[in-house]
Amino acid sequence: MTLYELKSPSNLIYLLTISYKIIYAFQTATPDSLVLIDELGRGTSTYEGCGIAWAIAEELATKCQCFCLFATHYHELTRLPNLHPGVIVNSHAEAFVVDQQLLLMHKISSGPATHSLGLHVAKLAGLPESVIKYAETKQTQLDTNLYEVETALNSQDTTEGQQLITNFLLSCKQIQNSTSSDEEMMKEINKLKQDMLQQDNKYVQALMA
User: Fold this and answer.
1) Residue 49 and residue 47: Cα distance in Å, rounded?
2) What are the CA-CA distances from residue 143 to residues 3, 139, 153 (Å)?
3) Measured in whole angstroms, how far is the alpha carbon of residue 50 from the centre of its chain?
4) Predicted confidence (pLDDT) per residue in 60-93, tens digit
5) Which of 37, 66, 139, 195 would disulfide-bridge 33, Cβ 3.0–4.6 Å?
């Protein structure tokens, strides 16, 4: 079994570095390979990062058909087993809140986490109560089911959208090898992104919204 570990790098341009490793996994992973992905999506906007993570997870599961352990804070990705039953499964680390105290069980259980515990971790770190309360208010405002649109997309949109994102990642790798400065590289990547969005694919638009 081949092992691929994709962890967050330091002191490097995150998106390009991870894209390079993802492309390598796409090209070489087999059903006997194991891909480890830890917190994919840093270095870009929240929903864009989630969209990229979603598309990569589906590509690995349905085309590479390799084993993959995908650790993520994007709760939206827990909907993937509904789209690919028997192929993708959810697991979570058990934790409970008892009398406003966070209790870690150090146990992995089946199914998705029911909710995020980030605010409780922030309390443990000692953030002011006023900041915690305001964060709770903003969380309520932002907690929308953006990815419900995924289930409404037809299979052609999904297939074409996944190919567009794969082509985007491959082009990012080529740009990394051909540009002479970070500024030029990011300019070319932004142009690629705009070109991809102009394809008017509903799958890509939903992920990048």
Assistant:
1) 5
2) 35, 6, 22
3) 4
4) 999 999 999 999 988 889 989 998 999 999 999 9
5) 66
- Which residue, 198, 185, 201, 207, is CA-closest to 19? 185
Total-model pTM: 0.62
Q: Which two tokens stand for residue 29?
A: 């992973």
**Are 59 and 51 in contact, with CB atoms under 8 Å apart?**
no
Mean pLDDT in residue range 124-130: 90
Q: Locate 180 and state its tokens.
A: 């002479």
Instruction: Report the alpha-carbon distance of residue 46 to residue 9 in Å, rounded.
Output: 18
State phi, psi for 123 to the nearest 5 degrees.
Answer: -65, -40
Three-class DSSP category at 4 = strand
Q: Is the dihedral of CA 92, 96, 102, 106 positive or negative?
A: negative
Helical H runs in the chain? 14-28, 46-59, 80-83, 118-125, 129-142, 155-178, 182-197, 202-208
Alpha-carbon distance 134 to 199, whole Å? Answer: 39
List the structure tokens of 3: 């092992």
Query: At how many degrees (to 10) do helices 14-28 and 155-178 cross?
Result: 120
Q: What contacts 169, CB < 8 A, 6 or more positions away?
A: 19, 22, 23, 26
